[in-house]
Amino acid sequence: MKILIKNIKELLQVRENTIAKVSGAEMAILPKIDNAFLIIENNMIADFGTMIDCPDTAFDQVIDAAGKTVLPTWVDSHTHIVYAGNREQEFVDRINGLSYEEIANRGGGILNSAKKLNATSEEEIYNQSKVRLEEVMQQGTGAVEIKSGYGLTVEGELKMLRVIKKLAENYPIKIKATFLGAHAFPVEYKENHSAYIDLIINEMLPKIAEEKLADYIDAFLETGYFSVEETERIMEAGKQFGLTAKIHVNQFTAINGIAACVKHEALSVDHLEIVTDEDIEILKGSKTMPVALPSCSYFISIPYTPARKMIAAGLPLALATDFNPGTTPSGNMNFVVATACIKMKMTPEEAINAATINGAYAIGISETHGSITKGKSASMIITKPLTSYYQLPYAFGSNLIDQVIIEGKLI
Ligand SMILES: [Zn+2]
């Protein structure tokens, strides 16, 4: 199957060579070609350039993108798409004045989702989750990370990871799986943290490794959840099973968690609503990608990740949704990009880099995703006619996507 996309008004994020990520001032540069063509062959990007050089050969399909922008599909490096039921009652409770902590103390929050997940069959969880996956694909996401973490039991965690595996098998979207057994302490382990961590390390991890169900390991490193020392135990154990760390950290408090993550060579540190000068110093020169989740800040009214300060310090930054039933019931990366511009003062160029190439780095797929580069996966968004790509974050409430191609297939 050979597809030609011709007359592209703006072809964005064009990189001649594979780069892993962009940092600091580089984030302001979004290479593009005006009046471009692009050829897809064998589900990969075979060629692209200006229309003057467009080859005059036969194609199986020709798409005329006159007036339209083409860019790589979004890479959403942090989601909890697999869950059972929802938490819309807590949403209304919060409107009526209850805090996140008060809701958690009443048996709400993560433990509420865990209760629902453990009471739901694998098939039903799959059916509920695939609806969300299909929705984000239509919204332009071509690669996604999905976490476990609503099981909090051996069976529950395995069930979630098997659902993620099945989604990866049945859909063209690239999926990476992360084991998040350390999302919260189940009630029966509230006073005995080490026993639950033993369960994670001695019971869950070996089974997950045996069935090859996860690529990464995660923990909720936060006051009242997993301490720095407890998270270090989990990162070390994960490493022994070949799972690199990607950690929830600095959402509500800064307790030197980032230093521990960098020490253990975490691939990413995610949330970062609260970031100290020391945290920024530690991240400089590390291989760890900071990941901001602005939809979460928006939904539960907490501070936004200080993007300007971090980029000024030379750091890279990735953007992801945190799609989950409690704090971010949305997987819309277009909204994330717009919110990063509107609330975090990122430029459109920085936000698009953060949501494509840097997102790809945060799940270890920069070699195949995140830019328009020959040999990379043919995963791209074709927009509706736009005056310029600035319209993507500017017209934040409009659906500006015309077509989505994932791994060479029209969605
Ligand atoms: Zn999360």
Task: Give the percentage of residues in beta strands.
Answer: 15-25%
The number of helices is 15
Taken together, the total number of domains comes to 2
Backbone CA Rg: 21 Å
Shape: globular
Number of strands: 16
Helical percentage: 25-40%
InterPro entries: Amidohydro-rel, HutI, Metal-dep_hydrolase_composite, Metal_Hydrolase
Organism: Flavobacterium cauense R2A-7
Subcellular location: Cytoplasm
Function: Catalyzes the hydrolytic cleavage of the carbon-nitrogen bond in imidazolone-5-propanoate to yield N-formimidoyl-L-glutamate. It is the third step in the universal histidine degradation pathway.
Notes on the protein architecture:
There is one protein chain. Strands 1, 2, 3, 4, 5, 14, 15 and 16 form an eight-stranded mixed beta sheet that branches. An eight-stranded parallel beta sheet has the order 6-7-8-9-10-11-12-13. It has two domains: about 1-70 and about 370-410, Urease, subunit C, domain 1; about 75-360, Alpha-Beta Barrel (TIM Barrel), CATH 3.20.20. About 35% of the residues lie in helices and about 20% in strands. The chain has helices spanning about 90-95, 100-105, 110-120, 120-140, 155-170, 195-210, 230-240, 255-265, 275-285, 295-300, 305-310, 335-345, 350-355, 355-360, 390-395, and strands spanning about 1-10, 30-40, 45-50, 60-65, 70, 75, 140-145, 175-180, 215-220, 245-250, 270, 290, 320, 380-385, 400-405, 410. Helix 4 packs across helix 5 (about 155-170), helix 6 (about 195-210) runs parallel beside helix 7 (about 230-240) and helix 12 (about 335-345) packs across helix 13. The protein is globular and about 70 Å long. With about 400 residues, the chain is α/β, with parallel strands linked by helices. The mean pLDDT is about 95. It binds zinc ion (ZN).
